[in-house]
């Protein structure tokens, strides 16, 4: 395997880790903006998504460290378009986050094999299903918007 081919899965893992860092932050913000009293269903969905993305982030950090590389750290700050407490707007932000995660997981699927690929397929599937649970629409090719346009 060439050096470039060896870097590709690592690069995809690092990009996916960066997306998971962002998703963890986004769901922490969204969870703080939604009212558990008036919208317990959305609160539960955001909490579940937060926990899922946190677990994936930790898994990716471990996989990268197991390869003998330093996992990318989280950014110092993230811009989250969630200045409202309107549940519909917060759900829109959550759907966008899941769409972005689906895109990096689709890249990870294309860049890996074996157990890593199976794990990435599971994460991609979960992101696509979560978009639906957040009120989004089904995509023929989740994470591959360029294929949707054909």
Keywords for this entry:
5 helices; single chain; 150 residues; Ferritin-like_SF; mainly alpha; Ferritin
Alpha-carbon distance between the two ends? 33 Å
Question: Order of helices and strands, N to C?
Answer: HHHHH
Give the helix tally: 5
Question: What is the third-level CATH name, the topology?
Answer: Ferritin
Q: Stretches where pLDDT falls below 50 for ≥5 residues?
A: 1-7
Number of domains: 1
Name of the CATH architecture: Up-down Bundle
Helix content: over 70%
Radius of gyration: 16 Å
Strand tally is 0
Textual characterization of the structure:
The chain is an all-alpha fold. Helix 1 (3-33) packs antiparallel against helix 2 and helix 1 (3-33) runs antiparallel to helix 3. 71% of the residues lie in helices and 0% in strands. Mean pLDDT is 91; it is low at 1-7. The chain has a single domain, classed as Ferritin, core subunit, four-helix bundle (Ferritin, Up-down Bundle), CATH 1.20.1260.10. The relative contact order is 0.15. The termini are far apart.
Question: What secondary-structure arrangement, pairings included, does this model have?
Answer:
Blueprint: H1 3-33, H2 40-66, H3 87-111, H4 114-133, H5 145-148
Helix pairs in contact: 1-2, 1-3, 3-4
Pfam family, one: DUF4439
Organism: uncultured Nocardioidaceae bacterium
Protein name: DUF4439 domain-containing protein
Summarize the structure.
With 150 residues, this protein is mainly alpha-helical. It has helices at residues 3-33, 40-66, 87-111, 114-133, 145-148.
